[in-house]
Amino acid sequence: MTVKRPDSPKRRVTSTDVAALANVSQSAVSRVFAHHPSVSDKMRRAVLEAARTLGYRPNAIARSLITQRSRIIGVAMAYLDNQFYPEVLQSLSRALQAYGYQILLFTADETGAADPMLEQVLSYQVDALLLASVSLSSHIAEECELAGIPVIMFNRTSSTPGAASVTGDNFAGGRQVAEFLVAGGHQRFAYIAGAAESSTNRDREAGFCAGLAALGMAQPMRVPGQYDWQSAQAGTRLLLGRPTRPDAIFAASDLMAIACLEVARTEFGLSVPHDLSIVGFDDVGVARWPSYQLTSFAQPVEAMVSAAVTLILERLESLAAPPRPIVIPGRLIVRQTTRHPAQGLVVEDGERVWRTPSETTEGP
Amino acid sequence: MTVKRPDSPKRRVTSTDVAALANVSQSAVSRVFAHHPSVSDKMRRAVLEAARTLGYRPNAIARSLITQRSRIIGVAMAYLDNQFYPEVLQSLSRALQAYGYQILLFTADETGAADPMLEQVLSYQVDALLLASVSLSSHIAEECELAGIPVIMFNRTSSTPGAASVTGDNFAGGRQVAEFLVAGGHQRFAYIAGAAESSTNRDREAGFCAGLAALGMAQPMRVPGQYDWQSAQAGTRLLLGRPTRPDAIFAASDLMAIACLEVARTEFGLSVPHDLSIVGFDDVGVARWPSYQLTSFAQPVEAMVSAAVTLILERLESLAAPPRPIVIPGRLIVRQTTRHPAQGLVVEDGERVWRTPSETTEGP
């Protein structure tokens, strides 16, 4: 029944072939593969045996046209060289696979604009679209929603109020870094920025600057970093080449913080943290390696992915569930690249963490 | 014309809708979107304008049933925490996107067995399947081929002779590491193994052992590493805790080599390379970071990906093109974690590389 000639495209075994061999109706075959409760054991056995004999596989693509569900989630992602995103991708893929969904991957370049790939994405009839580290014009986001494709932002927020997104608490994280560094006695602060147009950078910087201002400190020196190694190294050279160099640098990602640390130690001969404290963001695996032991604000990847999967499944199960921004709290993991404050260090889950000791800075 | 009710699945605009608005036949609409040369400019303009008005997008899924091509390449991958694979994924995705293909991603766990996910993969009617770091039973591989789905192994070889694969030159790499370490005057060699069942580990170890034997050296001490950080650290502790510790360790991946380096320096207080030389494999980005400056055998990701894409496209264009194993040569990049031989170091493309000075070791 199966035609398998190597010089022509494959001819698939269909449910009609299976029905013929099992001597049942084609709709009975469909019900068996849809795990319909009305199917008798005898019917199921006959159909499955016929299917095995013929090498039949249900065609998810064809079924998608009927059910309007492809079981495919489009994921647009950039920055795969930053350890944070491979961790996200692996976690997301496993979580979605557990629910029977696969990821159709679209890699964007670092300018982070997803619009050019959108036509491609939409032509595959993905059930939902998750944008990690890339942004979407409000026009295209609206088109997706109108086409019935929920859009979920990951590690980015949308300018559309109430749009579905999952982020870490970037503003609070930036602020806690400021409070931690001030409590440690630092006085000349600097910030190495991520991609200027990204919401993560915007919020981390805003939190950092707000935290410093609330404690009466001057605003930080600032250099661009673009979330990449070379830019962060160049920015660090600018900062450390100044006559009055900073004594504390907050980099908006671990990759940039490590790039900074390497320049400080190998090019300027500085001792970290004795001469200079450095803080990163993300707490990727490399931050824990002994040669770095980087103090970093941790974004809990598993919790963020779990929230994203929940948002996706809610939207697909019932379009009445409102899209909403979900913010996952993080925590500042204190390691060896920073001078420690006298108070506020606690141990949680085997990690040394800093919690702002006094809440009075936040007002009544 | 477009029904967009938030409480029901989306009803897509079809080519029939566009044809009606443009007052042409549905097959004319198809020809326009297939860029058929027979379409007049006037026809194209009318169809595209109607399509824009209605928000029509060609349905790649429906088209795939007709053309038997989905333009989707299935990629099964594990080890996303090893920098090598995110680099591969990013490079592969960009290369395939340039040819109009998208990646459907299947993440496997590290046991590396792809069989359980195969039914899922096949139900999506992928045009080809690339297996990176996972293995496939010969039975399943044969089923794919019979179903007309070419299977390409990446960084793994298949037990089936002549099967399509792209690998670095693992055997030659292991052998060059042996020759380099012997030339550097080392005498007590050790090997930290990767995943035991992987072809990469098998070939790297075989090359390393053959290289040592050919130069009259004893076979290396050996510990398992499983391509993961914790196992490599545990293996290093075993090696360095011995009364007669090795003076040169070859780890089958950079991740494991760095894990080894950290243990040697921070737990045993050893000076690298003065007390101990360490060599890795892959030359991922982290190997170049100043705190590591790891000597490593480089696998050229871009060249390997390019070869894989070529294999995929050849198979899809003409099923008569024979599948074959492609081996991409690499080179040993010499940095700061190894004692240097007196001869053989050359500079290529700004990198210090070691080339075996004499070919007489290889025989006539």
UniProtKB/TrEMBL annotation, chains A, B:
SUPFAM superfamilies: lambda repressor-like DNA-binding domains (SSF47413), Periplasmic binding protein-like I (SSF53822)
InterPro entries reported for this sequence: HTH_LacI, LacI/GalR-like_sensor, Lambda_DNA-bd_dom_sf, Peripla_BP_I
Keywords noted in UniProt: DNA-binding, Repressor, Transcription, Transcription regulation
Presence of keyword Transcription regulation: yes
GO molecular function: DNA-binding transcription factor activity; transcription cis-regulatory region binding
SMART domains: HTH_LACI
Ranges of residues in domain HTH lacI-type: 13-67
Entry superkingdom: Bacteria
Protein name as annotated: HTH lacI-type domain-containing protein
Species of the source: Elstera cyanobacteriorum
